[in-house]
Design goal:
Number of helices: 2
Helix content: under 10%
Structural class: mainly beta
Shape: rod-shaped
Mean pLDDT: 79
Distance between the termini: 35 Å
Order of helices and strands: EEHEEEEEEEHEEEE
Radius of gyration: 29 Å
Largest sheet: 5 strands, antiparallel
Number of strands: 13
Low-confidence stretches: 1-28
Strand content: 35-45%
Length: about 200
């Protein structure tokens, strides 16, 4: 009996039966063909074969790090700016989606004298979009993503979710000056398939 072959982006179930053949012996007489069989013997077999494809989700990305210009030259603060971070997803069951942030903001990386006149962090928002609009848009603020458990939603679907998704990171205008330098954060997107799929209890 063949079983389950699993490769990225593909779950294939192959089930087969080999060598179950019953045939009358060559040259058997008509009388032999009609001979009554004992109660526990039959001239046919019925076999139920069951295979299971385990729920799974896979993510991949072509862009692991990106940057965008958030500086408003007129004020020295931040301007309205956005960046899209693409990813590919392949899920064969309902799943829980979580987005978490390492810092809870874009944090200044460098050494500088502390001063109340300049900001050292930039709050931002993130929007996660899945292929085909499944689950709508999950929107999260950076501070909420840092809290324990991150920003979460349950995606309940009987369909395969497969294709290109994106995370949109946006910064809002703020006139308070920023220290000059690099601001960064690390986002983590997690998709956890639910055993049995479907809605939560």
């Amino acid at each position: 009996m063949g079983w389950l072959g699993n490769a990225f982006g593909s779950d294939v179930l192959r089930v087969g039966l080999v060598g179950l053949t019953l045939a009358a012996a060559a040259g058997a007489s008509p009388a032999a063909a009609h001979t009554s069989l004992p109660g526990n013997v039959s001239n046919s077999l019925r076999i139920k074969v069951v295979g299971e494809v385990a729920p799974s989700c896979a993510l991949s990305q072509t862009v692991h790090e990106d940057e965008f210009d958030v500086l408003d030259d007129a004020t020295g603060g931040s301007r309205d700016a956005s960046i899209y971070l693409p990813f590919a997803v392949d899920c064969n069951a309902a799943f829980d989606m979580k987005l978490s942030s390492l810092n809870g903001s874009l944090d200044f990386k460098g050494v500088s004298a502390a001063t109340a006149a300049f900001r050292r962090s930039i709050a931002y928002s993130a929007e996660v979009r899945l292929p085909g609009g499944v689950g709508g848009v999950m929107s999260c603020g950076s501070a909420a993503m840092e809290r324990r458990g991150g920003c979460k939603t349950a995606i309940a679907t009987d369909d395969v979710v497969q294709g290109a998704g994106s995370i949109k990171v946006s910064v809002a205008r703020d006139g308070q000056p920023l220290l000059r330098g690099i601001y960064s954060d690390t986002l983590t997107l997690t998709l956890q398939p639910r055993l049995g799929g479907g809605e939560r209890d």
